[in-house]
Amino acid sequence: MSAARPLTTLRTLAVIAALPLLLTACGYGSNSTDDGKQTPAAAAGAKKLSADEVKIGYFPNLTHATALVGVQEGLFQKELGGTTIKASTFNAGPSEIEALNAGSIDIGWIGPSPSINGYTKSNGKNLRIIGGSASGGVKLVVNPKKIKSLKDVKGKKIATPQLGNTQDVGFLNWIADQGWKVDADSGKGDVSVVRTDNKITPDAYKSGSIDGAWVPEPTASKLVAEGAKVLLDESTLWPDKKFVITNIIVSQKFLKEHPDVVEAVLRGSVKTNAWINANPDEAKASANKALEKLSGKALPSDVIDPAWQSIQFTDDPLASTLNTEAEHAVKAGLLEKPDLKGIYDLTLLNKVLKADGKSEVDDAGLGAE
C-alpha cells in the first residue's frame, strides 16, 4: 500500500480549543467532549449484547444528524438493549480518528477526508467504513456586491475550513476545472484560498477579509443570513447530485470482537435515517434540540431551515464518490495515490438493509476481502 501524505499538513494543523458553538462538517482540530447528558440509559433488565457498552463519536453538526437524532430519540439504544451507549462529540476529524485508534470510541460518524487519511496512514489496519449517513450540504456562498457570476471568483478571497479538508479539496478541484492555477499549500494563485475555521468565517465575511466561502452547513446558511448569496451548490457537480459528506466508521478490532453490537448500531442508523426522511420537520427539531443541549444555543430558523433542506440522509456510503474525492486530493497535490482497497466492509449494513426490505448498497470495489 502506498504511503499517503496527510490531507492536512502538520504545519497547518491549528490546535483549536474545544468550542461548544463550533458546528463544522469536516473541520479539524479540537478535543472530544463527553456527551453523557444526551445519552439515554439502557432499559433496566434488557439483554446485553457481547459488549457492556459501545462508545460512539460524532460532531455537533447537522451533517451528523443521524447520530444526533438517533441518540436524542433513543433509536440506537432501543436496538442495543442492555448494552449502553457512551457518546462523545468532536469538532475535528483527526481527533476523532485518534480516539478511534486509542479505543476511546468504537464507532464514529466522520467525513470522507479524515476517513481516507486515517485508513492510509495506518496502512489499512485501523478502521473500516461500514455505512453511509449524509450527502450534500456544501455550498459556495459569496458577497453579491463583489461576485455576481462564477467567473468573478477569479482574483477573489474565498475561505475553506482548512487545508486538505473535504471542502478544501472540493474547492481546489473546482478551481482546477476552471483552468485556474492555485498553489495548494499556500492557497495563492488565480484565487486566494483562505483557510479559515468555520467558527470565525461569518465574522471574516462581515469584516470584508474574505469575499466568500466554500463551506458546509450550517456555516453556509449563517453567511447567507449575513447577506451572502449561494453561487453554487456542490451537489450539482456530482452524478445524481449525491456525494458523501458523512459516513460511519468502526475500529477493525471492535468490528471483529463485537459484530452484534456493530449490527445493532447500524440497525439504529437505518431506522433513524428512515424516521428523519419520513418526518423531516420533527427530525430537524430533534437535531436542533440535541445541538442546543451540546452547545447551549439552538440554530435560528433562518439558518437551520435552508441548511437542513440541502442535506440528504442516506444509508448508502456512496463509495464511488469517496474514491473520486481521493482522486481530487491526489490531483491537487495533497495526497499520494492511496490504496483504498479494503476501506469498506458493508456486510452488516447489507444484512440490515435486506432484513428491512431495502436494496443493498455497493462498495465500488473497495470492500474488504
Question: Could you provide a short overview of the structure?
Answer:
By secondary structure, this protein is of the alpha/beta class. It has helices at residues 65-72, 75-80, 93-102, 112-121, 166-177, 201-207, 219-225, 252-257, 259-278, 280-295, 301-309, 319-331, 347-355; strands at residues 33-34, 53-58, 84-89, 107-110, 127-136, 138-142, 157-160, 192-195, 212-216, 229-233, 244-251, 311-313.
Relevant terms:
369 residues, single chain, 5-stranded mixed sheet, alpha/beta, 17% strand, disordered N terminus, 36% helix
Counting DSSP E segments of at least 2 residues, the number of strands comes to 12
Number of contiguous helices:
13
Distance between the termini: 15 Å
Order of SSEs, N→C? EEHHEHEHEEEHEHEHEEHHHHEHH
Largest sheet: 7 strands, mixed
Which structural category fits the helices and strands? alpha/beta
Tell me, briefly, the overall form.
globular
Commentary on this structure:
The chain has a 7-stranded mixed β-sheet with strand order 1-3-2-4-11-5-12, sandwiched between helices. The two termini are 15 Å apart. The longest helix is centred in the last third of the chain and has 20 residues, at 259-278. The protein is an alpha/beta fold and 369 residues long. Residues 1-32 have low confidence and may be disordered. Strand 7, helix 5 (166-177) and strand 8 (192-195) form a beta-alpha-beta unit. It has helices at 65-72, 75-80, 93-102, 112-121, 166-177, 201-207, 219-225, 252-257, 259-278, 280-295, 301-309, 319-331, 347-355; strands at residues 33-34, 53-58, 84-89, 107-110, 127-136, 138-142, 157-160, 192-195, 212-216, 229-233, 244-251, 311-313. It is built from 13 helices and 12 strands.
